Amino acid sequence: MFQLTCVNVVRGRPFYGGASRKEESCGDGTVPEEALVPVGPLSPELCEGQGFPFRTLSGGLGSMTVATLPDVKAKLLEGKRGLVVGIANEQSIAWGCARAFRAFGAEVAVTYLNEKAKPHVQPLADLIEAPIFMPLDVEQPGQMEAVFERIALEWGRLDFVVHSIAYSPKEALRGRVVDVGRDGFLKTMDVSCWTFLRMAHLAEPLMTEGGSLFTMTYYGSQMVVKNYNIMGVAKAALESAVRYLAAELGPKGIRVHAISPGPLATRAASGIPEFDELLDRAKAKAPVHRLVTIEDVGVATAFLAHDATRLITGETLYIDGGYHIID
Fold first, then answer.
1. Is the per-residue pLDDT at 46 higher than 60?
2. Which fold has domain 73-325?
3. 318: annotated active-site residue
4. What angle do CA 127, 131, 134 make, to 5 degrees?
5. Among 112, 167, 218, 323, which one carries the catalytic annotation?
6. Local structure of residue 223 (DSSP, 8 states)
7. What pLDDT, in 10s, does the model give residues 254-290?
8. Dihedrals phi, psi of 131, to nearest 5 degrees
9. By the number of CB atoms within 10 A of the CB, which of 39, 214, 232, 263 ranks highest?
C-alpha cells in the first residue's frame, strides 16, 4: 500500500499532511485546517516517536530532517528512467512527482534553476538518489540541450519527462490581459508553453520504446479565474499543444498529458494576488471539500506513466477533488 503520510517543513515547523496555507510562501501540501497538527521543530527523535521514516540531510543551508520516500511494495515503474524539471523546494509540485516516480521504482534525473536554487534542491535530489543532477534555466541558450545530451550519454533512452515550470513577468501577470505588452506576452508564452514543445522535441529521439510527456496546467485555462490573467492564456495554449503533440507522437508510442491540479500554495502561485481567497473558494466548492496535495499530483502523474495506461493520451487530467465540474 502506498502510504502518503508525510511531514513538510515550513520555517522549521512541520505539519502532518501539509503546510498551513496561512504561512507566507507555504508548501503545496495544504489541507483542511482541522487536519493540521503542529508538532514543533522536526527532529529524528520526533520522527521515530511518530513512526515516520526520515533522513537528516545536509547542504548549503545547513541540515534538515525530512520524511523519506513512502514504502511501496509494488515497484510498478522499475526499470523506467525519466526527467523532472521544476523542483524549487520540498513544496514544489515537481517534487511531489519526482518522489512518487522514485517510490514506484523509476530512476529520476533532476534539474535546478541556478546556483541560488541549488542548495534547496540538492538534498531532495540526494534523497531520491538522482543519478543526473544539472542546472537548467530554460532562458539560457544551450542548457536544455545539455541536459538531454547528458541523458543520451548516460542512459541512452528516456521513458518520461515532467515539465513543471511557468513564468510571467509581474507587470504582465498582474495587469489586464488586454493591456499586456508584447514583451510580457512573449516571455510568458516562451517559458510557460514553448519550453514544453522544445523538451518534447529533444525527448522524442530518446523515447525509442515509447514514453510519456507531462506538463502542469490549471483550470484558469478554461474559465476566467480572477487574477490568473495572462497565465490563463498561456495555459490554454499549453493544453492545445498537448493535444497536437499527442497526435504527432502517438504513432511512436509517446503519450502526452496536461496535469491540472486544484490550487496549490506553491512558490510560483505566490505571485498571484489574493491567492489565499482562491484556496478558500476551492475548498468550499470542490465536492470532496479538501485541497489537493503534491502527493496527490505525484501519484496520479506516475500512474499515467505506467504501461497499463498506454491507450490514454492527449488528456487534461484534473486532480482537484471535482472542483472543475461545479458551476
1. no
2. Rossmann fold (3.40.50)
3. no
4. 95
5. 218
6. S
7. 999 999 998 776 555 555 667 677 777 878 888 887 8
8. -75, -20
9. 263
